[in-house]
Design a protein that fits this description.
Cat_transpt, Trk system potassium uptake protein, mainly alpha, TrkH, potassium, cell membrane, 484 residues
Length: 484
C-alpha cells in the first residue's frame, strides 16, 4: 500500500504543476481582450483542487519509487492529463466541443499528434489558440521530465519517471551524473531551440503571436497551427524553409544536440550513425517524391515540386504534421510513401513520434547479420552502430518493440474498420495517431471532425500508445506487473 500511496502523491503533485499551465492563456485573453479567460481560471481552480485532494491524504509518505511505480505514474498521469487538458475546451464556448472531442483534442496536443476535430481554427479566441499550441509544447519534452527538472523536492525516484517517460530503446543513458541535471539540460536546449525558432518565424514574416505559437508546435514536432490551412496559410517559401530547418533539428536526438553544444563541435552530428541515416532517409525520400510530383504533373515546375516535396517529406517524416498542400489528394504512390515514412519517425531522444530511426537502423543491421550468418554459419558477426557493438539485449528489445507495434497496430486497425469506416481511412487514421503524426488520408486528411465517437476513443488510445512507446502502457496489462 505504501507504494500506491507514493504513486498517489506524485500524481497529485504533477496535477498541481499542470494546473499552473492554465494561467498563461488567461494573460493572453486579457492582452487581446478576447473574453476567453474565465474558462481557464475555472480550469486552474478545478485542477489545483483535484491535485490537492489527491496529494493531501498521502503528503507525509516518504518512500522511493520503484521502476514499476514509475511506469504506473507515467501512464496514469498521461491519462489524467488528457482529461485535465480537456477541461478548458469543455468550459469554453468556442470551440463548442463534446466531452469526447475535447479529450481527443487535449490528448492530440499533449501527445504532439496534431490531429484536430476543430473546424474554423482561424476564428478561435487568441487564448484558445495559445492553449492548443502550449499543450503541444509541454507534451513535446514531457511534463514529467519538466517536473523532474524543476521539482527535485519530489524526492521519489526521479530516474524511474525519466526512464518511463523518455522515448527510445536505450533509456538508461544519462547526459549528466544527476538525473535532475539531465532533465534541466534537455529542457534548456528545448527552450533555446523554441526561442530561436520563434525569432526565425518572426523575421520571416509571421506576427509575434503566430511566431511563438508555431515555434511551440514546430519544436515539439506537434503540427497544430493557428490557421486551418496550417503553414500553407502564409504562402511563403521562406517561412516553409524555416519550418523545415527546425523540424529537422527537433526530429534529431536532443542528447546529440547536448553533446554538440558541450563540445562546441558540429562534427558530432556527422559522427552519429542514427543522425546520418535520418538525413539520408529524408533526402532519398525527398528525391523520390519530387520526381513523382513532377512526372505525374502534380506540379509542372521542378522548383515547385522540390519545395512542396521537401516540406511534406520533412513534416511527415519527422511526424510534425504541418502541411502546405493537400498531400492526401496527391497520386496514391506518393500518399502511401509519405505515410510509410511516418512509421519511421524521428530519432530516439527527440520529440518526434514513430518507431524511431535507430530502431529501423538496428533492424536493418540485424537483417544483414542474419543473411551473413546463412553464408558463414560459424562466423561471429556483432551488430555495430558506429564503432560500438550493440548489446544483444537492445536488439531483443527492438524486435520485441517492433512485434508489439505491428500487433497493436493491426488490432486497432481492425477495431476501427469494424466501426464501419473504409479501409484506407482506418489504416491511415491509426497510422497517423499511433505515430503521433496527425493528418491522415481519405476522410481524415484535413481533420477528424467527421470521426464518430467509438473511432475517437480508439484513436485516443493509439495516440497514448505512440507517445509512451507501447511498452510503458502494455506492461501494466501483464499479470507479472501486479505481482509483488
Amino acid at each position: 500500500m505504501k507504494h500506491f500511496a507514493t504513486v498517489q502523491k506524485v500524481l497529485g503533485l504533477l496535477l498541481m504543476v499542470f494546473s499552473v499551465t492554465m494561467l498563461p492563456p488567461v494573460v493572453v485573453a486579457l492582452f487581446y481582450g478576447d473574453g476567453g479567460g474565465m474558462p481557464f481560471v475555472y480550469a486552474f481552480l478545478v485542477l489545483l483542487g483535484a491535485g490537492l485532494l489527491i496529494w493531501l491524504p498521502v503528503a507525509r509518505v516518504r518512500e522511493d519509487l520503484r521502476l514499476r511505480d514509475g511506469f504506473l505514474v507515467v501512464v496514469l498521469f498521461w491519462v489524467a492529463l488528457g482529461f485535465a487538458g480537456a477541461v478548458p475546451f469543455l468550459l469554453s464556448p468556442e470551440p463548442d466541443l463534446s466531452a469526447t472531442d475535447a479529450v481527443f483534442e487535449s490528448l492530440s496536443g499533449l501527445t504532439t499528434t496534431g490531429a484536430t476535430v476543430i473546424l474554423g481554427i482561424d476564428e478561435l479566441p487568441h487564448s484558445v489558440l495559445w492553449y492548443r499550441q502550449q499543450l503541444q509544447w509541454l507534451g513535446g519534452m514531457g511534463i514529467i521530465v519538466l517536473a523532474v527538472a524543476v521539482l527535485p523536492m519530489l524526492g521519489v525516484g526521479g530516474m524511474q519517471l525519466y526512464r518511463a517517460e523518455m522515448p527510445g530503446p536505450m533509456k538508461d543513458a544519462k547526459l549528466t551524473p544527476r538525473i535532475t541535471e539531465t532533465a534541466k539540460s534537455l529542457w534548456l536546449i528545448y527552450i533555446w531551440l523554441t526561442v530561436a525558432c520563434g525569432l526565425a518565424y518572426w523575421a520571416a514574416g509571421m506576427s509575434p503571436f503566430n511566431a511563438i505559437g508555431h515555434a511551440f508546435s514546430t519544436v515539439a514536432i506537434g503540427g497544430f497551427s493557428t490557421h486551418d490551412a496550417s503553414i500553407g496559410y502564409y504562402d511563403s517559401t521562406l517561412i516553409e524553409m524555416v519550418a523545415v530547418v527546425f523540424m529537422l533539428l527537433s526530429g534529431a536526438s536532443f542528447a546529440l544536440h547536448f553533446v554538440a553544444l558541450r563540445r562546441l563541435d558540429i562534427r558530432a552530428y556527422a559522427k552519429d550513425s542514427e543522425f546520418r541515416f535520418y538525413i539520408l532517409l529524408l533526402a532519398a525520400t525527398t528525391g523520390i517524391v519530387t520526381v513523382a510530383l513532377f512526372y505525374t504533373n502534380t506540379y509542372i515546375f521542378w522548383d515547385e515540386a522540390f519545395i512542396q516535396g521537401l516540406f511534406q517529406v520533412v513534416s511527415i517524416g519527422t511526424t510534425t504534421g504541418f502541411t502546405t498542400a493537400q498531400f492526401y489528394t496527391w497520386p496514391p504512390f506518393i500518399e502511401i510513401t509519405l505515410l510509410f515514412l511516418a512509421f519511421v519517425g524521428g530519432c530516439a531522444g527527440s520529440t518526434g513520434g514513430g518507431i524511431k530511426v535507430i530502431r529501423l537502423l538496428l533492424l536493418i543491421k540485424q537483417g544483414v547479420r542474419e543473411i551473413g550468418r546463412l553464408i558463414h554459419p560459424n562466423a561471429q558477426l556483432p551488430v555495430r552502430v558506429g564503432d560500438k557493438v550493440v548489446n544483444h539485449r537492445v536488439i531483443d528489445a527492438v524486435w520485441g518493440f517492433f512485434s508489439l507495434y505491428v500487433a497493436t497496430f493491426v488490432i486497432m486497425y481492425l477495431a476501427l474498420a469494424a466501426t464501419g469506416l473504409d479501409l484506407l481511412t482506418s489504416f491511415s487514421a491509426v497510422a497517423a495517431c499511433m505515430n503521433n503524426l496527425g493528418p491522415g488520408l481519405a476522410t481524415v486528411g484535413a481533420h477528424y471532425f467527421d470521426m464518430h465517437d467509438p473511432g475517437i476513443w480508439i484513436l485516443c488510445f493509439a495516440m497514448l500508445l505512440g507517445r509512451l512507446e507501447i511498452f510503458t502502457v502494455l506492461v501494466l496489462l501483464t499479470p507479472a506487473f501486479w505481482r509483488r
